[in-house]
Amino acid sequence: QVQLVESGGGLVQPGGSLRLSCAASGSIFSINAMGWYRQVPGKQRELVAVITSGGSTNYADSVKGRFTISRDNAKNTVYLQMNSLKPQDTAVYYCNAGISRFGVIWGQGTQVTVSS
Description:
The chain has about 120 residues and is an all-beta fold. The protein contains no helices and 11 strands. It has strands spanning about 1-5, 10, 20-25, 30-40, 45-50, 55-60, 65-70, 75-80, 90-100, 105, 110-115. The strands form 2 sheets. Strands 2, 4, 5, 6, 9, 10 and 11 form a 7-stranded mixed β-sheet that branches. A 4-stranded antiparallel β-sheet has the order 1-3-8-7, with no helix packed on it. A hairpin with a 3-residue loop joins strand 9 and strand 10. It is globular, with a radius of gyration of 14 Å. The termini are far apart.
């Protein structure tokens, strides 16, 4: 079994920063792409950022220039550095990863609230 565990969410004022972490654990042979998604009530889950095993990245237009995705392959961990946060960034943030022999695995989600 494998699992993803997210951490780092919380309450932050507009303009502030947060760093999310997502660590994969279990019988992991290799991890392909890893990504962050977010969801607000009543809306579909949307892609925020993705990073391949080779380090190539892609971002939603709404977060370009403010968010940075990175990964530490030795620790099976993906990060999301979020700067210049806006109230519209408020959502539950989920990480996922393509893990060999297990397919796409999702984390449990972490709440990010941007409010004054």
